[in-house]
Please model this.
Amino acid sequence: MTQKLLKLSGIGENRLHLAWLSSAEAQRFVDISTAVINDISVQGKFEPAMFELELGAVEETLKSETIRWMVGKEVKLLTKGDVYGRKWEREKFESVLDSVLDREYKIRLIHQAIAAGFTSVRGISSRIGMDMKEISYLLADMEKSSMVEFKGHENSIPVFGAL
Amino acid sequence: MVNIMTDFEPKIVAFLCNWCAYAGADLAGVSRIQHPSNLRTVRVMCSGRIDPLFVVQALKNGSDGVLVAG
Model:
């Protein structure tokens, strides 16, 4: 899930590696760590300053209730089923999680952009490279959930503030 | 000869489970198996202790990659 988010944000899913081994597998540990180091070396240095908004958005998404709830319910939904007794297929769960992640991440990225001083739809779009129409739709939803507020017009351009 | 200016040495934060990966790393050290030294190890009592936010924190604070091993 975290790798999916890193991919969405453009940071790259392979900045995070996951591995499982037992305490007796010293050689395996060396092999894994060497492979990870080589892979990161190829990717080169990571510049947090270049991904300031993205890192903030990833962090806020990971903190969000919806994501925590979904990840927490994963095993139950796949093995026991939901409150209606319906068992979920893994593919279905993954695709729902993907769309929720995508939406939650975009909302938080917009929020980060506004907080960083890009207050108009055009400004946000130029900063984070998202489609203006999509930003407008998401902004309307964000207003309802009190994440942003409409501040009024500046030269007849609507301006938003982050809450 | 190794050129220090061009050879990039990544900084990688490794979260290692005390009972699995950390013991494995320890054993690698004890049995004197050669391995690179780019990992900055954080020993945790279980890999389930690791919050995804730790990964973001590590990246924010200048690590080039993160390894979670359990």
Notes: Chain B has a mean pLDDT of 87. Helices of chain B lie at 21-30, 52-60. Chain B has one domain: 12-69. The first strand of chain B starts at residue 12 and ends at 17.
